[in-house]
Amino acid sequence: MTAITESAICTTCPYCGVGCGVTARPDGAGGLEIRGDKAHPANEGRLCSKGSALGETVGLEDRLLAPQIGGQEASWDTALDLVASKFRAAIAEHGPDAVAFYVSGQLLTEDYYVANKLMKGFIGSGNIDTNSRLCMASSVAGHRRAFGTDTVPGLYEDFDQAEVIVLVGSNLAWCHPVLYQRIAAAKSARPDLRVVVVDPRRTATCDLADLHLAIAPGGDAALFNGLLAQIAATGAVNAAYVAAHVTGFPEALAAAQASDPALTGLSDADLAAFYRLWIGSEKVVTVYSQGINQSSSGTDKVNAILNCHLATGRIGRPGMGPFSVTGQPNAMGGREVGGLANMLACHLDIENADHRGAVQGFWQSPAMAPGPGLKAVDMFRAVEAGQIKALWVICTNPAVSMPEADRVRAAIAGCDFVVVSDLTAQTDTAQLADVVLPATGWGEKDGTVTNSERRISRQRAVLPPPGQARHDWQILCDFAARMGWGAWFDYANPAAIFREYAALSGVAGALGRDFDISDLATLSDADYAALAPFTWPQSARKRGGRFFAEGQFYTPDARARMLPIVPRLPQSALSPDTPFRLNTGRVRDHWHTMTRTVKSARLSQHMGEPYLEIHPRDAARLGLGPAVLAEVSNTHGTALLRVLESARVPQGSVFAPMHWTAQTASAGRVDALVPATVDPVSGQPESKAATVRIAPFKAAWYGFAVSVQDVTPRCDYWAKARSKAGWRIELAGRDRPEDWEAFALDLFGRAEAQAITMIDQARGLARVALLQEGRVVAALFVAPEPVAVSRGHVAALLGAPDQPALLAGRAGADRPDPGATICACFDVGVNTVLAAIANQGLASVEAIGVALRAGTNCGSCRPELAALLAQARSAEAAA
Ligand SMILES: Nc1nc2c(c(=O)[nH]1)N[C@H]1C(S)=C(S)[C@@H](COP(=O)(O)OP(=O)(O)OC[C@H]3O[C@@H](n4cnc5c(=O)[nH]c(N)nc54)[C@H](O)[C@@H]3O)O[C@H]1N2
Ligand SMILES: Nc1nc2c(c(=O)[nH]1)N[C@H]1C(S)=C(S)[C@@H](COP(=O)(O)OP(=O)(O)OC[C@H]3O[C@@H](n4cnc5c(=O)[nH]c(N)nc54)[C@H](O)[C@@H]3O)O[C@H]1N2
Ligand code: SF4
Ligand SMILES: [Mo]
């Protein structure tokens, strides 16, 4: 294993599935100095804003450093004895299906392998599912239906060679920024490269698009059915490929021809332009992500896309193919290792008795799961029904990220026994647990991950485990030993687990499966420590490269399947009571439930508050002024979100990010609104198509506060974000407190502080600054309208002895307000960029880079810089 040294260690970013290589060096102050690894083939030195800020997220302030039972610190022995006794009792009394693991695509392969082996081979139940059910399950199911295996055929190189790249339901600019930069670079080198974005919203990714198709939610299957019909009509079918390698073409075509293109909501001209582009170039890569997967017809959407690539034989050759991009750093590894309830390790099939027998023989296990276990939504339903008596949640936060999140939260709270392994006890899920176990996190643990192009890379430790934290695989092995299976879980290190896994993949390879890395089954510890990134397979049968150019699918007859697809629209119907479609997803600088990105002030300034993107005409119709709060609700729950008017969303549709939790906002959990409607094949929830009603939140007052210390306000609305010197907090309430000074002292918990208060009764304004030892420790600004003070200016004065400027609430002429952060790397604000465009006559993103450095490091903000240029140009034209 890699020792802690002063030299930089090569590892892999723990965020998205691009799987960028990073080099990390301890900075001596508890943080890390982070750079892109130029030698890593996934990114060749590039990083995005989140990857660049990794060093700011490894601090220990919120970390769990010892096990807890019922909120009280306990020893590892006591905690694990309790966990084992509860699991043993539940299994003895109610059978192995009375327990469950809910795990994560952010676990390392070695952690995942151990969890899967433990549940499926030793407890003897299929009840291990993963948050990948919410993420990749429809892609997995679509791949398996078409290819007989869950395999992404292509490589990232295909982006460099493609003539047309279609991005379907993927906001690549924000969610896979380094791939987006790669396409941007390809396009500037080869201006003929055409990019199409298919997304109901006009996202930052559209900055690169030659054609944006603002498709109706759920219209994708109709779009690709239309394409297939047009492929046939224009003679673009690759008859030789279809004849040799494909089954089901006539049925798929007949279904496509019968399908109604009107379901796409697109004009005939747009459809024709798309079909021309796609059919006109052989080298087409169709990239897809959550706009496809997270749908009640997600698997069909995937197969509608695969059908078009199979019909044209555009698969597995340079520059072409369908490309499902994975979300989490090890989403792909989890699929390989069998993390899903309906899979076995190494792409073996849990429903196949021979496969089960082979794995049981290899593991020498006492009790093999007889078949698939419960998928995520069903698993939490079983928890709710009391059928699951003991639940272990590892590396995921289902009280926030599962659909019907309020119901899931109640189910977890009501479960007999819940264990959570996490980095912190301050998550919505951990707060419901009986036992919380401290896990090591990124930078502290060793193992492997697989990225979107099947590339396996090492994550390496660069910091020591903090406190008593243990690695996830160790915790599971310690538990297994207490269950009596110590001999089978006696690994010295992650390398030993990896060797066993690689050997098992050889068994799978011998059974004719594609996931075979048996070359690595005898890797020494030193080789594992030095393992360079490689793409699978790696075995005597095949080494690296693409799949399926010559057919050879993993079906019984080695032919791919085209499927007849009948498009279905989202399951929740709009109604007079719930007339808006709620689309959900991600923002550029936050990661999921924010447990790590929340710690970086830079990353928290881009989008500091949970928001609702709504078309200006809808906002006007509902009486929602700029920046007021909206109450969004349906039968499942309610959220309070800041209104962000934007014509980027179509009328009738709204967008809200998934990131806010009960730790960061009073009512920002959007999954409280998402119904647990699932795709019938994959079991993946429809996370992007809830229906909701929207009404103005009747605020009697709005507030903005800054504080050097974390606070949890008690008022109807609040949301908080990290700033450089502390926290910034947005507030609002239905009733005005009598005394603002008393309110502020209570809010900030500083009865002893000196308060300087300015009240303007007539205008309903109040400003309170709290000083201690002559320095501003907190300040509150109140108004009957959304508070108009400059956030950046106020936050910057925290800790300074400068209360007059602070209470003025805006910067003087000598200190212009930079505005909301746009470039997180160099901390450049919107106002700074706009001023530079106006004053220095900047006319391109490159010119902004030269003048301000904005956009010159990770490049994640380049689409937004381009938007500011366009905004400045249109303002100029109007003037
Ligand atoms: N910054 C950031 N990056 C991330 C993550 C993060 O949390 N933050 N998470 C990672 C993970 S786990 C994942 S899975 C990926 C997700 O990556 P993406 O899938 O790119 O991200 P999302 O924002 O969830 O959704 C993508 C788009 O789908 C669109 N969409 C909604 N409905 C439809 C529809 O019916 N059809 C089509 N065609 N499009 C539709 C939405 O408008 C949205 O822009 O991101 C990864 N990268
Ligand atoms: N409405 C809506 N809901 C969605 C989505 C959406 O687009 N819309 N997207 C879905 C998708 S694609 C995904 S992937 C999920 C993501 O949802 P989650 O998996 O619930 O979100 P995370 O915040 O990534 O949770 C990871 C947890 O693991 C902890 N952790 C980090 N590293 C480690 C480690 O090494 N060991 C352990 N034990 N713990 C660790 C973190 O502190 C955090 O609490 O959300 C899904 N939910
Ligand atoms: S694109 Fe960004 S988040 Fe994704 S792996 Fe690379 S640096 Fe990490
Ligand atoms: Mo995901």
From TrEMBL:
Q: Which residues form the 4Fe-4S Mo/W bis-MGD-type domain?
A: 6-62
* UniProt cross-references to Gene3D superfamilies, sorted A to Z: 2.40.40.20, 3.40.50.740, ADC-like domains (2.20.25.90), BFD-like [2Fe-2S]-binding domain (1.10.10.1100), Dimethylsulfoxide Reductase, domain 2 (3.40.228.10)
- Enumerate the cofactors the protein uses: Mo-bis(molybdopterin guanine dinucleotide); [4Fe-4S] cluster
Protein's UniProt keywords contain Transport: no
Name a Pfam family for this protein: Molydop_binding
Q: Which SUPFAM superfamilies match?
A: ADC-like (SSF50692), Formate dehydrogenase/DMSO reductase, domains 1-3 (SSF53706)
Q: Could you tell me which InterPro entries the record lists for this protein?
A: Asp_de-COase-like_dom_sf, BFD-like_2Fe2S-bd_dom, BFD-like_2Fe2S-bd_dom_sf, CT_Nitrate-R-NapA-like, MoPterin_dinucl-bd_dom, Mopterin_OxRdtase, Mopterin_OxRdtase_4Fe-4S_dom, Prok_molybdopt-oxidoreductase
Sorted UniProt keywords: 4Fe-4S, Iron, Iron-sulfur, Metal-binding, Molybdenum, Nitrate assimilation, Oxidoreductase
PROSITE patterns in the record, alphabetically?
4FE4S_MOW_BIS_MGD (PS51669)
Q: Which family does it belong to?
A: Belongs to the prokaryotic molybdopterin-containing oxidoreductase family. NasA/NapA/NarB subfamily.
- What protein name is recorded for this chain? Assimilatory nitrate reductase (NADH) alpha subunit apoprotein
Q: Which organism is it from?
A: Rhodobacter aestuarii
